[in-house]
Amino acid sequence: MTEDKQPRPKLSLPEVAPNASKTSDARLQTGVWSAEEVNRQQQRLIDEGLVPGTHVPEDRFGSHSAQPMVRKRARWPFVIAALLVFIIVGGGLSYAFIASDVASRENARKEGYALLDQAIALISEADKVVIAIDKAVENPVTDEDVSQLDALIDKIPNIRETLNQAAETARQAGGLFTNAEDKDLCQHVIDAADYRNEMLSYGKALIQNDIDAMKSAIELNEAWSLIVAADTDMRQAVEIVGGVHNDKVAEAVELNKSALEKIAQAVEKIKEAEAAFNGVDASTVSDYLVIKQAAIQLAIESDEALLANDIDVAKEKNDEYTAKDAEAVESAALIPEQPMDLIVNVYEAATSALRDSYHEVRSKTADADAYIRVYVGIDTQESDQEDEVQGTEEELSQSEQGAAEDAPQDTPQDTE
User: Rounded distance, CA 71 to CA 216, Å?
Assistant: First the structure.
C-alpha cells in the first residue's frame, strides 16, 4: 500500500508511547500510514512485549508470512475511527441541513401566507364592483339605472386586472408551500379569483342585455305613446267632420296632420327600438304604422276636398280611408296584446342560458369563499360568537326564570 499524500480529517486516537518518533506522531495525527511504517510499529510493540508475536523474524518479509493478517488487524482501529468521525461529521451536517431546511420551509410558508393575504386583499378590493354587478344581475332594472349600469360596466376591465393579479399572487404562494392543505388553500383562492372573473363575464353580458333591452323598451314605449296620441287626434277629427258644423273641417285637417306627424315619429322610435336591442323584431308595429299613415293621409285629402266643396272627391277619398282604416285594424291585430312582449321574449331567450351559467359560477364562487373562510377560522369564530350569544341569552333566561320563582307570591289573606 502506497503512502497517501492527501490530507485526512484529524482523528481522535489513543496517546502514543512517550518514545514515539515525531514522524510517527505526525502520522498518527493525520491517520496516514504506509505498509513499511505499520510493519515497523508493529514489530516495536512485539519487541517491547506489548503485544504477542504471531510470526518468526525470518518470516517478516516472506511472501506467505502471517504478517499481512497482523497488518490488517493493526489498521482496523484507524478505519473504525475514521468511519466514526465520518458518521459524526456527516450526522452534524445532516442535522444542520435538516434544521436549515425546516427554517427555510417555515420562512417560505410565512412568505406564502403573506402572499395569500395580498391575494385575498386584492379579491376584497375587487368585490366592491363584483357585488355591485351581482346586485344589478339579481335585481330588476329601471330606466333610471341605465347610466349607472353603463358606468359599472366601464369598471370591469380594471377589476379583471385586479383579480388576475390576485390569482397570480396565490399561484406564487402555492409554489412556496409543501403542505397539501396549504396548496389546496392556494387553489381555492385562485378559484375564488377566477370564478369572480367568470361572474364578471356573465354578469357583463347580462347587464348589457339589461341595458339594451331597457333602451329598446324606452323607445318602444315612446313609440306606443305616440301611436295612442295619434289615434286620439284622429278620433277627434272624425267627430268634428261627422257633426253638423262643417266649419270645423279645417280643425279636423289640423288634427289629422298632427296625428300623421306623431305616426312618423313613432316609426322612427320603432327603428331605434329595434336597433337598441339585437334580435328585436317590431315589424308588426312598423307594418301597422305604414298602413295607418296611408289611412290618415286619405282622411286629410277627404277633408281638404270637403273644404273645397268637391263632394265627389271628398266621398271617394273617404271611402278609400274607410278601407285603409279597416286594413289598419287587421294589421293591429297582429301586434301582441302587450307590445313589450316583442322585447321581453327576445330578452328571455338571450339571457336564460347566461343567467344559468352566472348562477352556476356564482355558486362555485360561494363554495370557494366558504372553504377559505373555514380554513382561516372566520366561520368558526362567527359560530363561536353565535354560540356565546345564544349561551348568554339562555343564561339570562334561566336567571330571570329563577328570579321569578324565588320572588314572594301574593296570596289572598283570609278575612273574617
Answer: 107
Residues 100 and 121 in one domain: no
CA atoms within 13 A of residue 355's CA, in its CB half-sphere: 13
The number of helices, as runs of H, and strands, as runs of E, in the chain is: 11, 0
Of the listed ranges 57-66, 136-145, 223-232, 296-305, the least confidently predicted one is 57-66
70 contacts 54 by C-beta, under 8 angstroms: yes
Q: Is the pLDDT of residue 415 over 60?
A: no
The answer to the question of residue 261 being in a domain is: yes
Exposed/middle/buried for residue 43 (C-beta within 10 Å: 0-12, 13-18, 19+):
middle
Q: How far is CA 298 from CA 238, 319, 321, in A?
A: 13, 9, 5
End position of a domain, from candidates 69, 92, 110: 110
* C-alpha span between 281 and 274 (Å, rounded): 6
* The residue count for the chain: 416
Euclidean distance between CA atoms 147 and 272, whole angstroms: 18
Contact 126, 163 (CB under 8 A): yes
Angstrom distance (rounded) from CA 134 to CA 145: 14
Question: Considering only CA atoms, which of 156, 155, 163 is closest in space to residue 193?
Answer: 163
Closest CA to 258 of 295, 231, 277: 231
The whole-model pTM stands at: 0.65
The highest-confidence range among 16-30, 104-118, 309-323, 393-407, by mean pLDDT, is 309-323
pLDDT at 401: 58
d(CA 301, CA 321): 9
**Is residue 69 domain-shared with residue 137, that is, in the same domain?**
no
* Cβ neighbourhood burial of 352 (10 Å; 0-12, 13-18, 19+): exposed
Give the C-alpha separation, 26 to 37, whole Å.
12
Residue with the three cell numbers 385562485? 190
Tell me which DSSP letter residue 141 carries: -
Helices (H), 155-179: 156-174
Structural domain total, the chain? 2
Buried b (16+ CB within 10 A) or exposed e, 184-221: ebbebbbbbbbbbbbbbbbbbbbbbbbbbbbbbbbbbb
- Domain that includes residue 346, residue range: 114-374
Phi-psi region of 22 (alpha: psi -120 to 50; beta: other; left: phi over 0): alpha
